[in-house]
Amino acid sequence: MSNIFYTLNVNGEDHQVADAWAGESLLWVLRERLGFPGAKNACEEGECGSCSVQIGEEVVCSCLVLAGSAIDQEITTIEGLSPEGELGDVQQAFIDAGAVQCGFCTPGLLVTIGHLLEKNENPDDLTVREAISGNLCRCTGYGRILEAVQMAAASRRGEKRE
Amino acid sequence: MPVTVARSLDHALAALEEFPEALILAGGTDVMVQINKGAVSVDQVVAIGRVPELQGWRREGDWLHLGAAVTYSEMMGEELSSLVPALAQASRTVGSPQIRNAGTIGGNLGTSSPAGDTLPVLFALDAVLTIRSSTELREVPISQFVVGVKSNTLQPGELIEKISVPVLEGPQEFCKIGPRNAMVISVASFTLLADQKENRVRSCLGTVGPVPIRSMEAEDLLSNSVNWGENTVSSEVLDAFSSLCADAAKPIDDHRGSAVYRRHAIKVLSRRAASRIFIEGKS
Questions:
Q1: What is the CATH number of the domain that holds B119?
Q2: In terms of DSSP H, where are the helices of A2-45?
Q3: Whether residue B144 is found in the same domain as residue B193
Q4: Are A89 and A33 in contact (CB under 8 A)?
Q5: pLDDT per residue over A19-33, tens digit each?
Q6: Which residue range forms the structural domain that includes residue B272?
Q7: A101 and A152 housed in the same domain
Q8: Please, what's the b/e burial string for B185-214 (b: 16 or more CB within 10 A of its CB; e: otherwise)?
């Protein structure tokens, strides 16, 4: 089995992947080869959403993307969502609402919710529930996550008015 | 290079000519699960998800041609969901938003799982697949393509280029049973389409046999019993239709459900779908 070399664009920068097995998932390459451990590995079958990343305009499960096929695309991980060392508004809302318990689902939820709020600054709860239906959280029961989304959405709308 | 990211249809076909046994990767939502488990070895991959010729859809008269790389999310879009509502409904029940953004209609066909959600809709529509290799082009009715459990008639070197379905006039329903509302693999599904030009119904049972099942007996009964002018049907006919549908099922016991439950589910779903499309009244 021959190994492969390719370049992935992650959070706006090109990263070389050298001497990789062709069957590696994007999740594995991000975490183990490129040093982006934000996307989490739980199910490796697209059930849990904890590995969610954005490719181009879409949120996908990085565990179900063949890394070598993701060349020439803009990949955005949780690490790329806010400037280094600073909290994004959705992150801050998660803290304020108490939406983080064990935290394992949080990076995937933040990617999904960030994408939702980019498209829709005033989502109703049903829209939010639908958008996060692919992100499993086994701690919170989702109540505080829904609260956090509304808080972040309200603050974005507020910022626009100012 | 073991991974070819095809940039055009010709590029994909040339790669498949060179490596006829290569793994064809579309959205990856099925095959990556197998690769992650180590159940599928990866020697050569031809990734076709970004081939321009396989994107998008177009309408030609009463036919709709869907590129093989059209995703479930795209099938749920406003225009497609008005042209083929059942296909949009089936797509809506696939996985999660993340899965629907990646998974494709061509991939669903390539996998040919008995639980493939779009397959019963495509069977009910008598969809025609356009299959291409570097040297040949052929059109195959879906019933001659999906031939068994995860088994189809795609030959080495070939790929699915597009899927063509008729645009029907009339309401459509796709119903699916799973353990919960989101991210479920089908335990049983039922598709019912009304064709108000022909005064016919088309239907299909999903996940209750090795391949999707159409009961012509059930379709004939309902088609001939509906009052097409009034859009009504009697309760007795609905009962008989759902019994015929349940009789046509060939379910198995597995970890997702028992055969007895699946047959019962078909009886419930077929009656439910018919009573959503037609007004249930006295005969």
A1: 3.30.465.10
A2: 26-28
A3: no
A4: no
A5: 999 999 999 999 999
A6: 172-281
A7: yes
A8: bbbbbbbbbbbeeeebbbbbbbbbbebbbb
Closest CA to A26 of A75, A72, A83, A59: A75
B41 touches chain A (CB under 8 A): yes
Instruction: Name which of B44, B48, B42, B38 is nearest B8 in CA terms.
Output: B48
Of A38, A63, A80, which residue is a domain's last? A80
Strands B200-206 and A58-61, how do they pair? unpaired
Domain boundary (A59, A80, A101) is at A80
Contact assessment for residue B195 and residue B277, using Cβ atoms and an 8 Å cutoff: no
Here the ipTM equals: 0.94
Grouping H, G, I as helix, E, B as strand and the rest as coil, residue B171 is: coil
pLDDT, tens digit, 9 for 90 and up, residues B124-133: 999 999 999 9
Give the amino acid at A59. Answer: V
Which residues of chain A lie closer than 8 angstroms to B29, CB-CB?
Answer: 46, 61, 64
Q: What's the CATH code of the domain at A103?
A: 1.10.150.120
Indicate if B7 and B77 belong to the same structural domain. yes
Least Cα separation, residue A161 to chain B (angstroms):
31
Q: Does B97 touch chain A if contact means CB atoms closer than 8 Å?
A: yes
B182 touches chain A (CB under 8 A): yes
| Backbone conformation region of residue B216, classed left if phi is above 0, alpha if psi is from -120 to 50, else beta | alpha
